[in-house]
Amino acid sequence: MDNMKxxxxxxxxxxxxxxxxxxxxVGLSGGPDSVCLFDVLCRLSQEKxxxxxxxxxxxxxxxxAAEEDQxxxxxxxxxxxxxxxxxxxxxxxxxxxxxxxxxEAGRNIRYKAFGEMASEIEKTGVAKEKxxxxxxxxxxxxxxxxxxxxLRGSGTDGLAGIAxxxxxxxxxxxxxxxxxxxxxxxxxxxxERELYPRIDKTNSENIYTRNKIRNLxxxxxxxxxxxxxxxxxxxxxxxxxxxxxxxxxxxxxxxCHACCGDRNLLSCTYLKNLHKAVRFRVYIMxxxxxxxxxxxxxxxxxxxxxxxxxxxxxxxxxxxxxxSVRRRYEKLEFLGPPSAExxxxxSDREDGVKWHIRTMAEAEFDEYRTAAEGSSKIYGAFCxxxxxxxxxxxxxxxxxxxxxxxTKSIQDMLxxxxxxxxxxxxxxxxxxxxxxxxxxxxxxxxxxxxxxxxRFSADYKVSxxxxxxxxxxxxx
Length: 476
What we know:
42% of the residues lie in helices and 18% in strands. It has helices spanning 2-14, 32-48, 65-80, 91-98, 102-123, 139-151, 183-192, 209-224, 229-258, 268-272, 276-289, 298-308, 362-372, 410-416, 448-452; strands at 23-27, 51-58, 84-88, 131-134, 165-167, 173-175, 265-267, 316-318, 324-328, 331-335, 341-342, 346-348, 354-360, 378-382, 391-393, 400-402, 407-409, 429-432, 435-439, 455-456, 470-475. A hairpin with a 2-residue loop joins β9 (324-328) and β10 (331-335).
């Protein structure tokens, strides 16, 4: 038992994961890994003066078993007098709605819940640097991750695997104290401590790629090639991590030298003289500045290189998720997708269109509508929403609008209207989260009605006899 405690302490000290007097959010699924981590952190909390907070996600993917996992976690936290927050989320429904896998939906929900818990702790007056999110990834998870990335065609950065410590988008540290511990050691610890963790039977089902790597590939490699395959792969990860950190340092300096002014423009001349390994990481930094923090591949980097070295001074390339890069003679510009903007007051978009958001009482709206009739004003009026909830943005995957006889996808609407593919992102939408309230008027539509008034959601368009406050979006 003390071997596991000492191993985790060594990992914490070596990688500077946690300090004394910290507030630690623990992701507690109820499985062996998270239960082991939770138990060790509880044992260390008195001598380290740590305050623990557990977060459990009920993913609604395993009826009955998920509820039993939840009860197990709640009972364990109650026995240790540790606060426990349970988040229930239908990952399957979220995955279908967002067009992603249930695994990705679950991951997004978990990290959001961890971040929200950390934020609430900070609001009580705890300094951000004294807050950490502890997750229970172990040495086997590391090996599986690296093999998974190799099979998907990862670059060398991907070989670094899971980081011992990183920071989320809000600046909270995410730490993994179990990353040097083997799964067999973890299960033995749980047995010795009589913890009786929950076992997710889906882990033994070879449905997902990661499960196949865990249950089929690694045992095959261990039996036929290298009995220490986990340790060998993880050494590769540590070597790749050291190389990555060095090149990233070089790239950060190169990025500063390549920048031209305040905008995300880089000098083509300077970039061409960089080593390819450094240049590609400069691309990663530049795309990160416009929001592309994931899904950048080696193929994308080569596409950017083709723009950089093109004989055409206005060359461009579309990457994924509507990110792009283009030449401006001897400058390279990195562009993100049209961003959502809160439309309070004046909304001045990069395309030059200005929309004014106004809140009106019913009587004021009646006067406004009368005055606007016969004028060149274009407006849409909505009940049941607040200006601060609204944004004007381009389409996203899965966007739909209520047309009165059910809903219709924005994609189908644009296709039916024969809007050319390259112009579809120019069509603006008034949205509240994922709900589309209004497809704004555009000259790109075929029908005169849509060109002049656009398409309103049947859920929100103001009737002839509205009640209460009304939100009016007016084109200036």
